Amino acid sequence: MSETAKIELDGKVYELPVVVGTENEKAIDISKLRDLSGYVTLDTGYKNTGATKSAITFLDGEEGILHYRGYPIEQLAEKATFLEVAYLLIYGDLPKQSELDAFENSIKKHTLVHEDMKRFFEAYPAKAHPMGVLSSMISSLSTFYPESLDPNRSAEKKNLTVHRLIAKLPTLAAWSYKNSTSHPFMYPRNDYDYVKNFLYMMFAMPTEEYSVDPVIVSALNTLLILHADHEQNCSTSTVRIVGSSNANLYSTVSAGISALWGPLHGGANQEVIEMLEQIAADGGDVDKWVAKAKDKEDPFRLMGFGHRVYKNFDPRATIIKKACDDVLSKLGVNDPLLDIAKKLEKVALEDEYFKARNLYPNVDFYSGIIYKAIGIPTDMFTVMFALGRLPGWIAQWKEMTENKEPIGRPRQIYVGATNRNYVPISER
Ligand code: CMC
Asked: 355 in ligand 1 pocket by Cβ < 6 Å?
């Protein structure tokens, strides 16, 4: 007999089913609770709420485990390419060579964006943050592909939109950077692989031969894989909620990009570097900044520390830390910010405040140092996160639509004023 949970409310006992996942995660299914008892559950920030059943990513925050479709992140980061991982997340299994070739070729066919879109860039102010530009541009794609407005029209059409998005995001991301530097846009090179093509569009100039150190291509491939999915985080939940209204996929992903931008989520990678620069400019006194982070009267937090689900260590941070050392030593970069980062990590990890709250460096703590070393400007860091996270958003959206999940619509407990009558303005 399957397990149930009993809940007693107003003297009545209700039995609720217990759901067990393939990794033995357990949940109480409260979906009928309101119909049965009139009660809803309250969980601000969804800290204890499973919003869906998903077969894409498994993570165990206590043990520091992260799997995509059952494959450990460590193996994928070491052995796979980003597009191979994208295929795995979106379609469920690692591709055979013929499947990967077909996937890559289809993506290469769609790397160009409509020429009219170039004109949109001209209207942005020079200092426009590339995340704002990117989210608008991705949403604008829907206006060029009206057939995408019904996201469920056919599996074939759905796939076309998915491939277009994967193909065009790097072009739009690189162009938003080129636009901010007033440099000419570089058209995609389909003879390059996905990562090299992105770096080419970011850094090549029409007047020069382009070459890139393979160490940089490989480091970026690893970083994108590490960011590719992370189950029901803020931007992914946004994607699932927006997509659940049957909004088109471009607008849905654009909403995910906006959610990612926030400094408590993907925007933290930019904030980490800015924090390290601030500490360096202030004389590099790490203890002073750790004390500030602990001071409840001070709004300062150690950016790149802490995580909603990882309470032991972030396995992505472990891989990135090593990649960071590798890249810096292979490229011969000596970054004083890395020394501050290492000191900060040591002091914080030994500090009772951080120990008691299980606050460890997260994925963003070291990623910014690698991005900086490979020449990515600071305000493009979160764009890099979006580039990596795209396959995860798509996979989660596809799963939700294929499972025919209902529109996302949480309840609330109303705590405002009770019924009162309108008072004319002259009498208030
Ligand atoms: N520095 C100092 N104190 C912290 C920090 C920090 N970075 N993070 C959490 N705390 C404290 C917090 O003040 C609270 O203390 P107390 O229990 O005394 O009130 C306790 O730790 C629990 O924090 P919380 O805010 O309730 O935890 P949360 O799960 O709601 O927030 C978090 C998680 C990631 C938003 C938070 O740790 C944070 O703001 N970190 C800095 C921003 C950051 O690095 N974000 C990137 C997350 S990883 C990339 C991604 O996947 O998005």
From this structure: no
User: 266 in ligand 1 pocket by Cβ < 6 Å?
Assistant: yes
Return d(Cα 364, Cα 280) in angstroms, integer: 18
Look up 213 and say whether it is catalytic.
no
> Tell me: the pLDDT tens digits for 192-243?
999 999 999 999 999 999 999 999 999 999 999 999 999 999 999 999 999 9
List Cβ neighbours of 328 (8 Å cut-off, separation of 6 or more): 334, 335, 338, 369, 373
- 325 classed as catalytic: no
Q: Whose CA is nearest to atom 12 of ligand 1?
A: 357
Which residue's CA is the closest to the ligand 1 atom numbered 16? 357
pLDDT of 1 > 80? The answer is no
Q: Report which residue type is found at 428.
A: R
Architecture of domain 4-65: Single Sheet (2.20)
Q: How far is the CA of 302 from the centre of ligand 1 (A)?
A: 9
Q: Topology of 70-266+378-402 in CATH?
A: Citrate Synthase; domain 1 (1.10.580)
pTM (2 d.p.): 0.92
**Residue whose CA is closest, atom 45 of ligand 1?**
264
CATH superfamily of 288-373: Cytochrome P450-Terp, domain 2 (1.10.230.10)
> Which residue minimizes the CA distance to atom 44 of ligand 1?
304
In 3D space, the residue among 246, 220, 261, 227 whose CA is nearest the CA of residue 362 turns out to be 227
Q: Where are the domain boundaries for CATH 1.10.230.10 in the chain?
A: 288-373
Q: Which residue in 229, 314, 364, 379 is the catalytic one? A: 364
186-210 burial, b at 16+ Cβ within 10 Å, e below that, comes to bebebebbbbbbbbbbbbbeeeeee
Complete DSSP assignment for 235-281 = HHHHHHHHHTTT--HHHHHHHHHHHHHSTTTTTHHHHHHHHHHHHHH
What is the distance, to the nearest Å, from the Cα of residue 240 to the centroid of all Cα atoms in its chain? 13
Find the 393 Cα to ligand 1 centroid distance in Å.
Answer: 23
